Amino acid sequence: MSAAGPESRRWFALALLCAASFIVILDGTIVLVAVPSIKADLDLTTTGVQWVASGYALAFGGLLLLGGRAADLLGRRRVLMVGTGIFAAASLLCGLGWSGEVLIAGRAVQGASAAMMMMPAALSLLMATFADGPERNKALGAWGAVGGIGGTGGALIGGPLTDLGGWAWIFFINVPVCVGILALSPALLRESRVRSGTRTYDPLGAITVTGALVMLVLAVVQAPEAGWASAWTIGLLAGAVALVVLFVLIETRSAAPLLPLRIFRSRTLVGGNLAIFATGMTVHAMMFTLTLYAQQVLGYSAVQFGLLTAGMTVMAIVGSVAGQHIVTRIGFRPVGVTGLVLLATGCLLLTDVSADGGLLGFVLAGLLIFGSGLGSAMVAASVAALAGVAARESGLASGLTTMAFHLGGALGIAVVATVAAARTRALLIVPGPPVPQLLALTEGFRSAFGVAAGFAALGVLVCAALLTRPRPVRAEHLEPAAIAGG
Fold this sequence. Notes:
Number of helices: 18
Largest sheet: none
Helix content: over 70%
Number of strands: 0
CATH class: Mainly Alpha
CATH topology: Growth Hormone, Chain: A
Shape: globular
Distance between the termini: 12 Å
Radius of gyration: 22 Å
Strand content: under 5%
Structural class: mainly alpha
């Protein structure tokens, strides 16, 4: 093999891992543009169709920590491949879904396979492949760019698929991608796991933290309908808090904890994850609100909505590439602050949306600014959250970052859905001349965009306060590169 062989193969491996990340993130957003078609074809209620999206988020968010630890202990390539196979089968089931129940079950299996095997394993393999420093920053820049495309490109890709082929194709498209990942993984990825004499597990820790995350996600996705002050929501949140307390007690006494609490001594890991959480809240809140505005107020088709967001997707790539270069030179704090300021600015411009679409120029400008901010913010926060993490805990750290983004997204959607509905309802019942329905909806969405800007502002404060350069990892914590020939 030539000297260039291993070097070039590492970048092919990165492309493979980014493909796995892409379909996982895409499947969390692509379904939004197909919701009207799914609801009509399967005769679902509004509550029922919500679970097509929520079922995925619930399984994914609830199992991420367990998935990250499983990847560390059982082997990251093995876990990635098993998860990819299950994800492909679940995608096929969703596309063939002949009833709402089958589709929702398939979505839950998709989320579980992505959380348990695909997402943490893919990111931890990336970390094992590229050493901490400029090369890893470059790889994380590519990872962030792909995440930006997946997070914002759901409408661009899902719109034409839904309009031209039917909603089933938003799921069928996953199958050939998964087959390609399975075929290339043995050639491009070398197995990587924690090296110890015995594998020790933490079943009580796994049960309590998974239960806490499931209850938390369930509470926030149901809160807009059930009410934040309802007994159901309060009970779930209280249960989640109780399980978290129990989990912490278990972890402090466990000989081999699922989540070693010492990992939170890293200021940058905490700050990076909080910044990712704030970014997830902002992105999902904005995209959810924009989707409803485009469909309910402007009457856009899925294809038209995809075209509306195309520039944002392109700018997310530009922001990721630029952010990766700048992070390497001046650090992740200024890049993270700038990215989240751009996210807030984009959301504030979107508060000028109108019921007749007359201010579409503000919308387009807001989306372009938002996209550039998303790319740079995700790169900076990801580099910060993973910088200096020991390779033996890379799967766990990867699970934390992914969990932070998606839990933030679930909470962001729940909050803006509540705000928009409350504002619209208040205008429709106000005494005096009746307010037109479209105007009331638009005012609700404008309020929601303002709240999304507030989420980004909180992220700016986190970046400014917590993102400092970490201490380097000691050499004995590093593992060999996790690719063939590495």
